[in-house]
Amino acid sequence: MMADPVGVGRVLAGRYTLRTPLGRGGMGTVWLATDSVLGRQVAIKEVTFEAAAVEERRLLRERTLREARAAARFAHPRVTTVHDVVEEDGKPWIVMEHIPSRTLAQVLQEQGPMPPDLVSRIGIDLLGALQAAHRAGIVHRDVKPDNVLIGAEWRAWLTDFGIATSSGESGLTEAGILLGSPSYMSPERARNEVPSPAADVWSLGATLFTAVEGRPPFGRGDAMATLLAVVTEPPAPILAAGPLTPVLLGCLTKDPAQRMTVDQVQAGLNRVLLGPAPAMVRPAAPPLTSYVPREPTKVERLDVADLSALAKATRSLASKAAQKAAETASAATHGRPKSNSNGPANPPTQKASNGQPAQAAPQRPRWRFKRRWVVVPTVVVLLLCLAALVLVIYLLGALEGTMGG
After folding, report:
1. Given 117, 142, 160, 200, which residue is catalytic?
2. Which terminus of the chain is more exposed, N or C, with fewer CB under 10 A?
């Protein structure tokens, strides 16, 4: 018989009894618990402090309290409600509404990708949650499958505001550190710029992409390689999204000024839902209460110095691309011959005796054959011949007249 996880049966604040873990993430463990005062089940988030330094513990504690405050600043049926915050063992525990559910990441792991209409339905729920958060001045910054709960009838809830930013509050991140999940982090966050609601639209698009395609759009394994792909490369080929494709591409536009707004995404998702019924069969609803251990998507601690190097590298790549495009345009303007099957367009570079590339010999101007250069002189000669012939005939006539007289 398997032993109960450490902590089962513990009572917090004299009223919340821990029953079983519901999930584990990069910031801690979520427990199913019983509230003995109100006689209801609740979910309690325990922040993990193991092996954390004193300063990191302070930051984690404050971040947990900010998460509770952020979630309490607005109410929406698609966001888990915060009931209470309890201090135990020098750390806070967030007491939240319990929703019988599984994370979207768990559902995808067990059942595979979803049809576009079902993903659109989930997207509509998440958009409602994000709209309410943005109206309250909150940017979630970590929308991803691990932070999406899927409940009965495939309804979705947005959870975990652990690294959210709120207007009017100073940043909490340690100096030189950026928190986030690279596969779902927007290009502007990868460049360590101040996040706006557009960053959540990007993360939502990456989450919906993963749900319909079965893989993240920019996953490369390594955190910095993934971020480089986020900033410089197009998303992975879209194979299964069908009518959802324009929405995904609109969300994953790299320039936040050109990216779809929340309202535009909502209109696009509604078009998918109102379109013809898809041929794919909707999968059975997932079991809601059982817990399946899995490795969650990590919240990476990224060095800002590395991000600065990444931004510099992307600027260099953009400069080279622009230079190449300018050279191509210049070649086309000056009529340079393109390469063909007979050999390269440009001859190999010759080297001078000093080993340096020798300057190319000046090329002769290429004269183009023009038809008028032959036609015009020919016509002129013919006219002169005709005039001479007329003149001769006239002179002969005059001479005959004189002799006859």
Report:
1. 142
2. N
